[in-house]
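If you are new to this repository, start here. Below is one unmodified record pulled from the training split, so you can see the exact layout before writing a loader.
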Amino acid sequence: MPSGSVSRALRLIPDGVVRLVARTRIHPNLLSAFGLVLNLLATLSFATGRFFPAGLLMLAGGGFDWLDGAVARAQGRASRFGEFLDSSCDCYSDLVLFVGLLVYYARVNRFLYAALVCVAMAGAVMIGYARARSDSLVAHGDKRPIQGFESGFWERPERVVLMILGAMTGRMAPVLWLLAIGPNLSVVATILRARNKIHLLAGPRPSENQPSRSAGGR
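And here is the target side for that same chain:
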């Protein structure tokens, strides 16, 4: 489900689109699955060097990714399993798209960009992991999950938009540099902020050398 700045932009899309799809009574989980299938097809396009069709397929897959949650709410079918399935499909979509790019750059002997794809893939995995782990601080007294310095910009929707633009404009190389650097820097920032926040939430600890007052002491 889209979030962050891209999510705010998607709110401008008329609700009529959601209502129209909701009237078909198609199950939202099927929309999530369709989005994954389209991204698998985009992966094949990337692997064979057909970047523009891959960008179109990613764009269509992103549409299904946005629709599934909105349609689920419109149909009254929103559920925890639906959210879990949506997130799982998103994770698979992220990884397979990078695999498609990795296969392509390995085939054409562009090992620098193959390495960039691997670094970008690691950043995509770690930024989600770091964000999920920081959510656990809410249970320990924090009111908001910790984010990197970008305030959530490098989440999946923003990364997908950059990949679509890179694929459809033939500028995937600079996009890979951004995806290799930005998310990983965000992970480092999240880790540092989490360290400081955990220390603040833990509070000062009594000194081990301070003598403890006995039960009968004054």
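Two things worth knowing about this chain: The mean pLDDT is 81. DSSP finds eight helices and no strands in the chain.
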